[in-house]
């Protein structure tokens, strides 16, 4: 069996988990958008499970449909049964550190499989996830029904945010097909010369920070800035793409640390702890964010070339 | 007018900046970019569908959710809280640094802690305040500073160590985007090049937090 066929099995498993979330979303009477939410997970589940047999145009249409559902506020997390605190406390006392064991196995096993076999990173994650789940069920003596509910609860609570990274990566495909990278490169090279390695690195890193600050989301900035600046100014000049990606993303996080647009990280604690200074968290973060920006520019310059 | 192609970038920037519906913004940006570069609707939908299928790997982290759900409903977070609350007799800065180390290590294993809600507010913040007020009472301004530093420490650890986990959505997004842009990279190489940043963060934030203690000695 080829790697792609094995991978297809894991995509089918993902589709099934999403269909669990769909069933429970349809059944969630308290969710005012239960039909839309149920449809959202059903469509995704079908794309993952049987998308291989559907024409691409149909999948494209389904994605536009999801966009419309989301625009019309028809996808909501809804009411999710919370973890039973009493049971959790009791089981935490009994199991203690063993509760972390499946996660450790997952992380190490997926790296081992991807490095020691020729199955690749993705299949590694798939196999390791299944083994880690079985371990978790054994350690906690969980039955299939509880596992079903734990799965649908996790998937539903991730919501539309869970699909955003894949959509952003898809946007990268459209950008490539339309030649967006070439146009931005041409525009920017009117001001900055292409070919100077250090200048390219500085330009990419500073742009990642600024655009993450404006958008409040480093993932979104990564998709556009890497297409527009990272690839033409660094990778096309011989820079190592893995270095550019890894450091580009964490450089974007320097922007996340400095912007009120990233409310989850910078405003949520202010509200949670009833702080007086609305920008208090950001003020504590700016010195580290700026130091990390400089450090990462230097790292990228020396590691990429 | 080839500059019209950049409309997708503008839509993404404005859409996110004005907090419009993110999914709709990304889909609109994709459609607009395709139209602006002269593609037919049919062609755009085709690329959109194929692009989405080719990038399914980005969502592989969904496969890890059932396991996380099971350990979570059996008290994984409570076990972490029990562990951290055993830290005693340390200064505020040291408490932050121990938490930073825990946050980075758990991140590397993909153990997602909702840090601010689960640890900073109920645990790290009160522990640090208690530690800092041993010599004299804290002013309201100092209390605010401790809260802010506690929250910041969680963000530092979370952000700069999360790409050590091979199945994190960030690593998968990077690998898939680079593939889409015509420069494929392996997920393990991204993890590898994320290690220096995680270590450097620990060192400089560690130093930053040790200096934080000085203001409470006076």
TrEMBL record, chain A:
Keyword presence, Transmembrane helix: yes
Residues passing through the membrane, by range: 6-23, 57-75, 95-113, 119-139, 160-178, 190-211, 218-236, 242-265, 286-304
Keyword Magnesium tagged: no
UniProt-listed InterPro entries: DUF979
Alphabetized UniProt keyword annotations: Membrane, Transmembrane, Transmembrane helix
Protein name: Permease
Natural source organism: Companilactobacillus nantensis DSM 16982
UniProtKB/TrEMBL annotation, chain B:
Keywords, alphabetical: Membrane, Transmembrane, Transmembrane helix
Pfam families linked: DUF969
Top-level taxon: Bacteria
InterPro entries according to UniProt: DUF969 (IPR010374)
Residue spans crossing the bilayer: 6-31, 159-178, 190-210
Name of the protein in its database record: Membrane protein
Species name: Companilactobacillus nantensis DSM 16982
């Amino acid at each position: 069996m080829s790697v792609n066929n094995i991978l297809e099995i894991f995509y089918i498993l993902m589709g099934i988990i999403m269909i669990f979330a769909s069933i429970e979303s349809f059944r969630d009477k308290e969710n005012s958008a239960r039909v839309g939410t149920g449809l959202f997970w059903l469509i995704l589940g079908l794309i993952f499970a049987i998308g291989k047999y559907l024409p691409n145009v149909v999948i494209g249409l389904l994605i536009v449909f999801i966009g419309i559902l989301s625009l019309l506020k028809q996808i909501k997390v809804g009411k999710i049964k919370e973890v039973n605190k009493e049971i959790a406390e009791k089981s935490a006392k009994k199991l203690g550190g063993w509760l972390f064991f499946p996660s450790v196995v997952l992380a190490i096993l997926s790296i081992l499989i991807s490095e020691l076999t020729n199955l690749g990173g993705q299949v590694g994650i798939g196999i390791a996830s299944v083994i880690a789940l079985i371990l978790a069920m054994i350690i906690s003596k969980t039955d299939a029904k509880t596992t079903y509910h734990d799965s649908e609860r996790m998937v539903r609570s991730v919501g539309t945010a869970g699909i955003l990274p894949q959509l952003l990566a898809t946007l990268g495909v459209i950008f490539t097909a339309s030649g967006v990278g070439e146009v931005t490169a041409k525009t920017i090279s009117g001001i900055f010369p292409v070919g100077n390695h250090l200048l390219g690195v500085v330009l990419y890193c500073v742009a990642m920070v600024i655009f993450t600050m404006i958008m409040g989301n480093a993932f979104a900035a990564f998709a556009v800035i890497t297409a527009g600046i990272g690839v033409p100014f660094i990778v096309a000049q011989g820079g190592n793409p893995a270095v550019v990606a890894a450091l580009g993303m964490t450089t974007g996080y320097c922007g996340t640390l400095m912007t009120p647009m990233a409310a989850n990280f910078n405003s949520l604690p202010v509200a949670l702890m009833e702080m007086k200074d609305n920008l208090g968290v950001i003020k504590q973060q700016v010195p580290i964010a700026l130091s990390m920006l400089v450090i990462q520019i230097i790292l990228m310059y020396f590691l990429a070339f | 007018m080839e500059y019209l192609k950049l409309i997708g970038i503008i839509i993404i920037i404005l859409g996110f900046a004005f907090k419009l519906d993110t999914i709709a913004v990304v889909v609109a940006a994709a459609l607009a970019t395709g139209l602006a570069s002269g593609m037919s609707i049919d062609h755009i939908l085709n690329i959109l569908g194929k692009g989405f299928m080719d990038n399914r790997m980005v969502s592989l982290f969904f496969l890890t959710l059932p396991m996380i759900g099971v350990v979570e409903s059996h008290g994984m977070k409570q076990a972490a809280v029990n562990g951290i609350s055993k830290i005693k007799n340390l200064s505020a800065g040291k408490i932050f640094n121990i938490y930073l180390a825990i946050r980075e290590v758990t991140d590397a294993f993909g153990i997602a802690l909702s840090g601010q809600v689960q640890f900073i507010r109920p645990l790290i913040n009160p522990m640090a305040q208690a530690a800092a007020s041993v010599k004299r009472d804290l002013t309201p301004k100092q209390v605010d500073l401790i809260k802010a530093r506690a929250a910041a420490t969680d963000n530092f650890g979370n952000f700069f160590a999360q790409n050590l986990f091979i199945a994190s959505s960030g690593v998968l997004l990077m690998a898939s985007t680079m593939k889409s842009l015509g420069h494929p990279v392996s997920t393990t190489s991204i993890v590898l090049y994320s290690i220096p940043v995680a270590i450097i963060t620990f060192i400089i934030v560690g130093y930053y937090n040790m200096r934080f203690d000085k203001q409470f000695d006076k």
